[in-house]
Amino acid sequence: MVGTKTNEREGTRAVLRHSRTSATKVRAVLDLIRGREVGEARDILRFCERDVALLVGKLLASAVANAENNNGLDPDELFVSACYADEGTTMKRWRPQARGRATRIRKRTSHVTVIVSRLPEDRLARSRARHAADLGARRARRVEAGRKARPTRRDARMPGTAPAPEQATPAQAETSGETTLGDSAETTETTETTETTDAAEGTVTADTTDAAESTERAAATDAADMSEQTEEKGE
Question: Which of 7, 34, 105, 218 is most buried per CB count within 10 Å?
């Protein structure tokens, strides 16, 4: 039994005739997108390094637009059901060679066809589930990144603001109370030590002052005695 021919396959098609590219070069790119979903096929053609990929990408976009506008299909539910390239007219040119000879140049053309159809129900269900899972994963990563980066952005925007203090638990409150009492005791001891040091410094200062006054009085008395002795010797 003969199956459905490629050019008789159902679906929405777009045809490019007399393309100035050989069919062999086009078929190498068409093999990459055959049977792929439209979104995946676009990504493959976008990163393909062959020049023919640009031509095939435009043809695929035309087929998707035909399916959306003429048949009312959703572009997200389409896939490349068939794509093929037939040989077109070959233009003959001549190139001069040595000894009066000439060599033939063949400028080949091709007819490129891309057919898109709606995905089957089972494949469409799998595609929707995969898309929903990817969307949920991206959303979760975005929310997690926002939560991690939000305090940093707020602190950078308002340097003077500080995060709200957390409410302490009873155990933390008791520990804090003990720490406060200990700090108060240490402060009291430090104050008493300071007062004692000040008192000792005051006593030392007073003793030093009394000693200086006694030395001055003794020097004055000695000077007076020497003056009296000098006066007696003069008389």
Answer: 34
